[in-house]
Amino acid sequence: MSPNAAFLELLGVFEFTYAENRLTLPSGAQRLLALLALNPDGIYRGAAAEALWPDCPPARAAANLRTALCQGRRACALTAIDSIGHRLRLAASVTVDLQCAWAKAKETIAGLSQPPLDCEAYIGDLTRQLLPGWPDEWLIPERERWGQLRQHALESLALQCRAAGQYLAAIQSATAAIAVDPIRENAHRILIEIHADEGNIACALMRYRHYETLLQQELGVAPSGQMARLTEDLISQSAGQRRTAFNDTATFDAAAHTRALKHDVRPAGARASQRAQPTRGQRDIDRQQSRRGS
User: pTM, whole model, 2 decimals?
Assistant: First the structure.
């Protein structure tokens, strides 16, 4: 980013930076910049005034808009707001973090990019909310759109990392997707499959139980049939592993016994005589019983 560039942050706390300096803006100017950033094609002055000050009479709202527009234009030497007739638009020279994250998320969903080297930073960007704490109604649909996009992007990233064998990043992505929408099944299923790929069947089954309990408590429903079949396959896989381990142990013990017999060169009668001789502990017990009988 150029040293004299302007950068607008809407994910998390509102910040407007120019020439690497954080600028303090009045509330009206902040909200106007945010509204314009969410409407890249611009918005009519009347619509902007009504959206930003819905409880004010039209004349008062228009006056508030003029004040916010003046404050926004005077914030820095760079023109941050363009006025085209009756329309207002954020200047192209202002970079918006939401637009950058939006474009990258769409690439991830479309499979047009490989998992980034710094997955943790990318996941952090996708987990940030759009201006949390702002009560404006015009933010509600924009938050919904951003929530849906980042949900799908996190799930896609988890699948890509899983396919690449990057299990830690895959788990982090799936966990972040669950945090965005705990009810949505896709992210839970992806996380279960990642645990299974790592051989952590117990963790996978525990994740399923947690999700099953959540659905029952919140909605009174059960996971889908696809999820249930996945769990049944994991249980069958776990049982198969236990049977294989038992058979391997039994085969090893039998082979070890056979090898021991092969290395024992004593006559068969001597070996049988040794097996028939009582142990030291058994001889002590027999001696005590003999004394009591006498």
Answer: 0.78
